[in-house]
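Two folds, back to back.
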Amino acid sequence: MHYSTIKPIVDEEKLLIDKGSLKTKRKFAFLLEEGDVILINRTMDVNEEVEVLIDYSYTEKSKRPKESINIYKIKELIKE
């Protein structure tokens, strides 16, 4: 590995989800790929663990409480 930081180029989106339905997995930054959806948008160290969105639910007619979150879909990864 000839780089120490990763800077993601992302598309930002806001989601309305059922509170508590967010499912993520932890992944080392050097394992991130284009198309992954992450919850942070900043430069990362290669060995830093990052939460990647796997799934969530939103039920329109349910009375479950809702929450709004920002997600970032990776378009490109710059390795420095």
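---
second:
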Amino acid sequence: MDSRIWESVDHLVAWLDEESPLPPREERLARILKLTEEVGEVGAAVIGATGQNPRKGVTHSWEDVQHELCDVVFSALVALRTLTPDAARVFAERLDYVERRSAAGRRKGG
């Protein structure tokens, strides 16, 4: 992953730490729960992009969905960095694991 992303995540975490009124343990939990909020916003954007609420009609675009998905990723990276200062290593190791697992599945034909 691009080092610029991790630099940005570090800046976001530092800023959030400075601004947080919560004790560190509660702040850590709040950052993890933030993911739920962001995933909900993805759902709302998909419903809005497909016009699934007949009362509202089409209220979002697929670009809105893309932006909301990015917010989920940002929130996850901030939560991960909040849990460990070595978030980049943890992420890279997990990515390697997922790549190996998916490659093994592809070799088996499923």
